[in-house]
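Input.
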Amino acid sequence: MHREIAKGVYYVGVDDHHTELFENLWALPHGVSYNSYLIIDEKVALIECVKEPWSAEWLANIREIVDPSKIDYVVINHMEPDHTGALPDLAKVAKKAVMVYTYKASDMQKSFYNVPLREKIVEDLEEVSLGSRSLKFIHAQFLHWPETMMTYDTQECVLFSCDAFGSFGALNGSHFDDEIDMRMVESESRRYLSAIITSYLKFIRQGIAKIKGLNLELKLVAPSHGPIYRRNPMWIVDHYLEWSSPDLEKNCIIIYGSMYGFTYRIAMMLKKQLAELGVEVKTHNVSYSEMSRIITDTMRAGVIVFGSPTYDAFPFPRIQTVIDEMETKRFAKRPIGLFGTYGWGGGGIKKLQEQLEGLGFSILDPVISVHGQPTPQEVGNCRRLAQVIADLIR
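Output.
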């Protein structure tokens, strides 16, 4: 199903309610959309493709508007396969189309697909005329791959922003921000940014500064995933700027694992003590919290506290996974609290401390390591740690 979103600009994307994990990592409780756009002018331009399993549905959407053999340009803002997997199928029916992309995308396309279409490599801010309008190509390196660009329709003032300003969540025929529950969009777009783009936060800020510096009129912001913004196009831009800020929030996140309840009880005791001191605090049990939600809550938290039992002389494995994610996603440095339990030899908390200090995080005193049930002294240490955290956050 297609939909005209601006004069001569059509949505021809598809919804995915089948895939359970985006990138085989991140939960999709509301599905996801693969957004593609068709522009009809003297020349016909297609902005973005879709993921390969949805190729037939996508081509059917295009055929509702134009014979694919009439397509002059296929604009590829980003080479990731959820954007380009259907490109080989398109190439079979749009044989005169020219692929428009950056130099780095050219190399990737040859490696991924090597389709028999001509290519046009565009420089930053280069324009291509379609007739009454031009398309301006804005390089957006590392948002979130090195070949990425955005495309701007100069007549209708539509920014096709690629993965920037994207969101999880299928659209189900409600393509615009004024047709969707924005509470869900706010949650799912922040989770999308946190899971997919946290490693590249500075490039988000650079990209937004570049867009604002070009003084482009924005009537629509049309990303590659999630809704199109027309009621307030700057809503998502401003939220992305806020969520990518290096300024940490004044809160505390407790991330814990527990096998038999000993570590859980300390986590809940610390949470209660922090709440009594007026600290905003959230907890995540790593055995049950989905990883993207842990990352979303943690990426800008003012203080992170880890609670781990010792597991075969090492930290609880899923706690280790969270710390590995923090490293790969280049989390900003901040204070870390540590507590844990052990049944016999211990060692898990010590190894966590060594690893986190090696990554440049500062570890708060006291570090609490409990053999079984906490002693009165260790309960007092929890109160001390809560007070230290409260003083830092204030």
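Residues 250-393 form a domain with the Rossmann fold fold (CATH 3.40.50.360).
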